[in-house]
Amino acid sequence: MKLATLGLNCLFSGALLGLVACNSSSSAIKESAETGETTQLATEATQETTEAAKEETKELAKVIQKKGGVQNRGAYIKILVNKNAITNLDIKHRTQFLKLRRTPGNLAKAAENEMIEQVLKLEEATRRRTLATDEQVETAFGNFAKQNRATKAALSKELNRRGVSTRHFKSFIRTQISWQRTVQGKFQAETSRISEQNALKELRDNGNQKPKVNEYSFKQVVFVVPKNKRSAAKIAERKREANAFRQTVNGCDNLLQSIKGLKDVSMLDRRHIMEPELPERWKDQIASAGVGGTTSAQETEKGVEFMTICSSRTVDDDRAAQVTRQSTDFSQFSEKSSEFSKKYLEELRENATIVYQ
Prior knowledge:
Blueprint: H1 3-6, H2 27-39, H3 43-48, H4 51-61, E1 63-65, E2 77-81, E3 84-87, H5 88-100, H6 107-128, H7 134-147, H8 152-161, H9 166-191, H10 196-205, E4 213-224, H11 232-246, H12 255-259, E5 265-274, H13 280-289, E6 298-299, E7 303-315, H14 318-331, H15 333-350, E8 354-356
Parallel strand pairs: 1-8
Antiparallel strand pairs: 2-3, 2-8, 4-5, 4-7, 6-7
Helix pairs in contact: 2-6, 2-15, 5-6, 6-9, 7-9, 10-14
């Protein structure tokens, strides 16, 4: 199997929503490499100080250089990041991975920095509960293989032959998915802190009136498909059931009573949801369905769902101003995400304790 066939020179071009750029490391990685070189300058002084001075220096530098260390014929620890180990094999696999990506420069140093960043990203994702699941990683791995016209087994064989290892590659996938979710979650959380008063003040300072926003209440009907029973055939079957039931729906009043006789069907009551808050996949359909109407049935993580619109009105209150402001900021996430991600990672690195063995 040829390298060009697998497309490993241009990683995840679309397979993971463009999270990894072709033939280069991210700018955040390059910046962190420079940071890592600078922070090692305090190494020897740190070792010679007293325990109290060590703690003080650690707060300033957060990086300790230790000579020696226990080694054996196999794997051994090279770096500790907040007590999480990075081994010589991790560095070796990442170095080979960088070669496949045609990354220029000192690959050993770049591998160390990428692995440090990977540990920090996964640690933060675990803390924020945005860590990608094994199922999501396997799906992404399978999609990548399919897009490169290879089976998962063939891709694994080629990765292992190239010295990357399937396990290392999947860890990379998990990091990319998890970090995007973590960055987006933090961005939205910080944006959501904008108070109604600040949003209104900004509108008035700019000479604008309060925006008029459509607000909806709807019922979310879910034809549940458990993960252990999920298949293309099962989804198709549940979609037929959902569409057949959808044709009988006439508004929200008796909807709960209607689904009681159905197997594995649940209903969620969604009230006072403003148009900017609607998920993109539902926004246009909810807006066009009209009161009493339904959206089409769509496959989701829960199974197959559709929405029944219960009410709609136009509002121009303080909350509408806040939601509109937040929506504008959220829409700019793709433009701001790179810089936001870079600063976020720098903060994590500054607060980390990094020990070189």
